[in-house]
Amino acid sequence: MKRNKHIRGNRRSGMTLVEIMIAMGIGSVLLGSLVSVTQSSQDAYQSSLRPLELETRARRAVADIVDELKGINVLSMWDEDPTSVFGVNRMKYRHVTGIDANGALVSGVENRLQWMRDPQELDDDIDNDGDGLIDEGRVVLTRDEGGPSERQVVLCHGVPELMEGELDNVADDNGNGMVDETGFMLRRENALVTVWITVEGMGGDGRLVQRSVETSVRLRNGL
Ligand SMILES: [Ca+2]
Ligand SMILES: [Ca+2]
Ligand SMILES: [Ca+2]
Ligand SMILES: [Ca+2]
Questions:
Q1: Domain-located, residue 2
Q2: What is the pTM (predicted TM-score) of this model?
Q3: pLDDT band of 79, cuts 50, 70, 90
């Protein structure tokens, strides 16, 4: 009886070893699948986050620009004509800093908002700086332009050469009244300035993602 029991025990051990090997094989396959699923989930998660991140970036930039412009009055704007139906992607302006003894407005230093191409990027339909974006730029605020304390602040990066939905074809493809406009534009009607920003980036699936934000700010009028 003891011997039979021993034999049965050995048989159980052999079977267990085979079972373990099979289990290890199955486990490896399952683990591989799990890693693959996890990676896919992470990619999907990253892809879903990308548009949100881009929109947040665009909204922050627009909020900064609104803060910047609401302190100026209509007459302090000059440079290119912001009332053009085509809009402008650069404007110079001064803030009103006070009123002198004669009741005249006192203006501060000259500032500028503009779209500028990224420093390592050329206008050549090629991604020169290797970030996946082609001919992209940024929205830059220059304070005291040409003055002793001139300094530049990048309000938004990843701003494309053309606004979302626009093609370089001398036509208004996205139906906003402007032709072949850049990813950052301003247009003024009386005291109301409208700001547009498109921001772009590469999604987790390697495709280009763009998000656009539009808002308006009412300037101080009649000063
Ligand atoms: Ca690039
Ligand atoms: Ca380029
Ligand atoms: Ca357009
Ligand atoms: Ca166009």
A1: no
A2: 0.76
A3: low
Residue 222 CB neighbour total at 10 angstroms? 7
Non-local CB neighbours of 135 within 8 Å, separated by 6+ positions? 117, 121, 122, 123, 124, 125, 126, 160, 161
59-71 pLDDT per residue, tens: 999 999 999 988 7
Which ligand sits nearest to residue 182's alpha carbon? 3
CA of 162 to the centre of ligand 3 (A): 9
Give 208 Cα–ligand 3 centroid separation in angstroms: 20
CA of 116 to the centre of ligand 1 (A): 13
Domain range for 99: 51-218
Distance 115 CA to ligand 3 centre (A): 16
pLDDT band at 47 (very low <50, low <70, confident <90, very high): low
Please check whether residue 182 lies inside any domain of the structure.
Answer: yes
Question: Would you say residue 151 lies in a domain?
Answer: yes
**206: in domain:** yes
The Cα 181–Cα 184 span in angstroms is: 8
Q: Give how many domains the chain has, as a whole number.
A: 1
